[in-house]
Amino acid sequence: MNEVAADWQEAVRRFGGLLGQLRVEAGLTVRELATAIGVAAATVSKTENGGHARPQDFYVVKQWVTACARRADERGGFSIPVALDWWREKHSQLERLHQKLSLQPLRSELAGPMTPTANLSHGHDSHPVPFEVLHQKAVDHLADRSPHVRMAALRTLGDLRDMYREKRQRLVDELCDYLRIPPDTSDAGEGQVRRTAQMVLADRLRPERGDDATATNSAFWPDMDVDLKRAFLCDVYFNDCEFRHADFDEAQFEGEAHFDGARFVGEARFVGAVFLGYEVSFKRARFEAISWFRWVAFHGYAYFQGSYFGFNAEFSRSQFSENAYFDHMTVRNYAWFTHAVFHGSVTFQHARAESAKFWLDSFRAGADFRRARFASPPEVRECEVVGQAERHWPDNWVELTAEGACGFVDSWPVDWAAVVEKAHAEEIRAWWQSRS
Prior knowledge:
The chain has 436 residues and is α/β, with parallel strands linked by helices.
């Protein structure tokens, strides 16, 4: 057994013990936990005892931690964010070792003995087997019925990108092609395979820049275009990734979607995308060129705090089912929210923009524009507000109720008001008074 394999088995043994301790603290039996995360009870017991030479599903671990955290949180124990931080710290140890081990069998099968490390850092000529042979072998494995073989093949494609620099964009495109294929709902391992493809892609798009803005991640590939139009994605973690051109039009996001700190150098498209998870987060994301969030359906909480838009922020006709947060957002040009519907509260505290347009919008809960700054007054046209939630509008806006319109509008529903500019409100009042 080589040194890496020994480290791997030792890490699995320790990690399994920690998972077992977490389950006990949460007050879950082995059978209850197995039911909660959708695995066999024997899998839980074997994992706790460090019996797996290789974890069958990395993301089962996350489900494991989340299920335990929720149970403990209900009982007044630790919180979910604390447990997830614990998971990320421990999980990363296994992930690094897994990356070292997962490709060894395939490399041995394809190319025979390879010099450690050296073959990962030199060019094409140092490899005894041509790229096309290695590549085709990995692609063939993507058709295998076993999800574990497909995951190994995806990691192999990532490894080939590291070795053959001139092939990187081509292989990024192939990863994206795989994620655009509709998932096989009868395959229990399909979700994990897709998460693996996303992870392989994200690892190469994350520069991990230091204080001097220099990329410290040796596996980072700059200037990559990502075409995930109409892709099927689940539990996306593109935090701190950099995209030259990104197309997520009509993509479907299952589970959480995280783009915190991501940088979009070129056009970023999310037109018609659907975010089905509990939350989607673009905190501190930078959109340096034109970006599109038109017709987007946010089924969970939407976070855009501290985001930067170098051109327009285009959210027209989007639906926000839960709360939306645009605090400290900066827009160099116009922020467009025409025909947007906010079912939850929305906040723009400390946001900055050249101007903003809110036409035919619907605010179904609270709204907060306190300390938002606009170079020119934000425009509002025929927007409606519903209910008695607390709302703070820009200085030149006012809510106009039936009573405020001198009581002449009997058809307006109860707890309904229009949001108009103050000058327009005075015109409406004057018109109604002239008819009395």
